[in-house]
């Protein structure tokens, strides 16, 4: 549904074929929506409500994570451990990239990597500097070419990834869950480790401002780290686990 930002009154409703868990993406006068059954739609906002521009059935697998827009690309991942890039103009698939090692037997996909924390794929892809950065439940961070999906590098971390990779200059920041309690800083071009800092499991995405990295911890602390070194500047104790982006 769409509500008026000033009054909270209902502007329109749009019925999808299944529940919606991922946050819609918005650009100019368009809204992009993904439902749990793998269907993605583009709605153009009008004075009378909306006009459906296209609707695509991507597959039979759940879409849990948020949608990401970058130029004419709509990026997301599904529970079959594929990352997708759709053309926003017509909804056609530009590329898809498997984020776990697998092979096919009689049209059935067999996964060969160990999945940490199950196959619930909730990490949102992040597009920056001509690349798309993807965190996976199998414990890898991938960088792929934004236009072709060609893999540029990958780095193995110590647990599953639920939050979105955060890009700041030449650095990629990412936390993990279900394994080690380290927070990672990687080189944006090579994927090499710059530093890692012991904090806590991290379910949500970090945030960066003025050279400082703010990390939500499952242990109930919000951590402030030096972006260059990973040193802990301060931490603040909350009442419960912190899962949202600071």
UniProtKB/TrEMBL annotation:
Stretches assigned to the Pyrrolo-quinoline quinone repeat domain: 15-96, 125-198
Domain of life of the native organism: Bacteria
Pfam families: PQQ_2
Name of the molecule in the record: Predicted cell surface protein
UniProt-listed SUPFAM superfamilies: Quinoprotein alcohol dehydrogenase-like (SSF50998)
């Amino acid at each position: 549904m769409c509500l008026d930002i000033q009054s909270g009154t209902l502007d329109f409703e749009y019925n999808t074929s299944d529940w919606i868990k991922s946050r819609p993406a918005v650009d100019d006068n368009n809204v992009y929506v993904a439902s749990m059954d793998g269907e993605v739609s583009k709605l153009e906002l009008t004075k009378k409500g909306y006009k459906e521009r296209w609707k695509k059935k991507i597959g039979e697998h759940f879409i849990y994570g948020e949608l990401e827009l970058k130029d004419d690309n709509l990026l997301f991942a599904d529970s079959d451990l594929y990352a997708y890039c759709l053309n926003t103009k017509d909804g056609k698939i530009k590329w898809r990239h498997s984020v776990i090692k697998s092979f096919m037997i009689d049209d059935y996909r067999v996964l060969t990597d160990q999945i940490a924390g199950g196959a619930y794929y909730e990490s949102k892809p992040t597009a920056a500097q001509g690349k798309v950065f993807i965190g996976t439940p199998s414990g890898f961070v991938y960088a792929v070419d934004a236009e072709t999906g060609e893999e540029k590098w990958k780095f193995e971390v110590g647990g599953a990834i639920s939050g979105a990779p955060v890009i700041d200059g030449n650095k990629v920041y990412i936390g993990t869950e279900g394994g080690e309690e380290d927070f990672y800083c990687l080189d944006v071009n090579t994927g090499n480790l710059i530093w890692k800092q012991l904090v806590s499991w991290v379910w949500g995405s970090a945030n960066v401002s003025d050279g400082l990295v703010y990390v939500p911890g499952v242990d109930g602390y919000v951590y402030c780290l030096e972006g260059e070194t990973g040193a802990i500047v301060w931490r603040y104790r909350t009442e419960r686990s912190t899962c949202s982006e600071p």
